[in-house]
Amino acid sequence: MALESVPETRRAYVVLSFIASGLLFGSIALRLGIPPYATYAGQNLWNYRLLSPTESVTDPSNLVAQLTFTDTPDESWFFIILAAIEARGAPIIMHALHAFEAVCRDDAVAVENHLTEIVAHLRDLIPVLPRMYEQCNPDLFYNCIRPFLSGCKASCELPRGIFYENEHGGGTWQQFSGPTAAQSSLWQFIDLALGVKHRSTGTVVYEDDDVVGHPGVSSEEECLFLRMRDYMPGPHRRFLQRVAQEANIRAYVRAHPNNEDLLAAYNNCLDCLIEVRSKHLQIISRYIVVPSRRAEQKSLPTVNPVVGPTGTEPNKRMEGQATAAVAGTGGTSPMAFLKQVRDETQRTLIHVEK
Questions:
Q1: Phi, psi at residue 50, to the nearest 5°?
Q2: Of 55, 67, 95, 285, which one is least surrounded by beta carbons within 10 A?
């Protein structure tokens, strides 16, 4: 059957991505500019339906995942929480783009207004992520769902990756990272728009480097965020490349140190972003670090879930419970990576001496 429209092609990609380890669907993925493997876009952006067409796409209670690996409500809830966050954050894109234009015409009031709108939308996102605790059991996620999201890059179980056959009977071994929030075009856009710079995990920068770029990074391939753009839909990836060239908000704010309202609006955006990343750290601790320790202590095989009450939002102390041995779906140590991301966001705040 011919795929004539973009929605049809996306749907074909989502279905095939769930069985990527067994079938080759390179031509479908190629049309979308995305790898022939499960990605953040395939599992979250294009993999939901509305329970009520008259209700909002920003409400997780009105969404359900169309495909899951485990056929559990926990997995569906995991996917649609992320989809709802993407929907709620969509207006941020237009406000940031309008702010770029306002900078070009030196309209400080308009820049401040758009930054204030971005703050409001970021604050609207903050309560959504902790709703993960409502219907997604951490042990079931870690033991049953997460193995499907682990990818085949630097995998002990799949050291060579996955062999993709071609139509001529040959083929190649390929390695892919699993779906991760680092593949979200929205969050990478927000970082670019606000001038938040990220480096390879473990790199420490002790001074402001707005002009010189990314010291300490020998290659762009070493930065996870840059590598994860290869897993985004082609149009998203090209859009971010353009945004990286055009982003001008941070430089403009720094050029107007006496405009206290403008400075406050910009720093408020970063404060909200820092809070989101703190919530993300708590999620990682709850759903990866703690279950991994529990599994080790009880010597439980990872194929058997421990089903129990979902529980409540964890205390921030859980951030300190991480071990470097736990790897995220993107192939990094998730706690170390996310702590560095939060710290880099913190360092982006502009402080003006009076």
A1: -80, 135
A2: 55
Lowest mean pLDDT: which of 26-35, 81-90, 283-292?
26-35
- Is the pLDDT higher at 201 or at 307? 201
pLDDT tens-digit profile of 111-170?
A: 999 999 999 999 999 999 999 999 999 999 999 999 888 888 877 778 888 887 777 778
211 — pLDDT class (breaks 50, 70, 90): very low
Rounded mean pLDDT of 295-302? 65
The residue assigned the tokens 């996917």 is 79
Q: How far apart are CA 107 and CA 123, in angstroms?
A: 25
User: CA-to-CA distance for 299 and 35, rounded, in angstroms?
Assistant: 35
* Tokens 């209700």 belong to residue: 55
- β-pair partners for 162: 174
Query: Token pair 């049953």 is at which residue?
Result: 144
Cα 62 to the chain's mean position, in Å? 22
Mean pLDDT (the chain) is 84
pTM recorded for the entire structure? 0.82
Give the 3-state DSSP-derived string for the chain, with helices as H, strands as E and coil as C. Answer: CCCCCHHHHHHHHHHHHCCCCCCCCHHHHHHHCCCCCCCHHHHHHCCEEECCCCCCCCCHHHEEECCCCCCCHHHHHHHHHHHHHHHHHHHHHHHHHHHHHHHHCCCHHHHHHHHHHHHHHHHHHCCCHHHHHHHCCHHHHHHHHHHHHCECCCCCCCCCCEEEECCCCCEEEECCECCCHHHCHHHHHHHHHHCCCCCCCCCCCCCCCCCCCCCCCCCHHHCHHHHHHHHCCHHHHHHHHHHHHHCCHHHHHHCCCCCHHHHHHHHHHHHHHHHHHHHHHHHHHHHHHHHHHHHHHHCCCCCCCCCCCCCCCCCHHHHHHCCCCCCCCCCCCHHHHHHHHHHHHHHCCCCCCC
Which amino acid, residue 123?
R
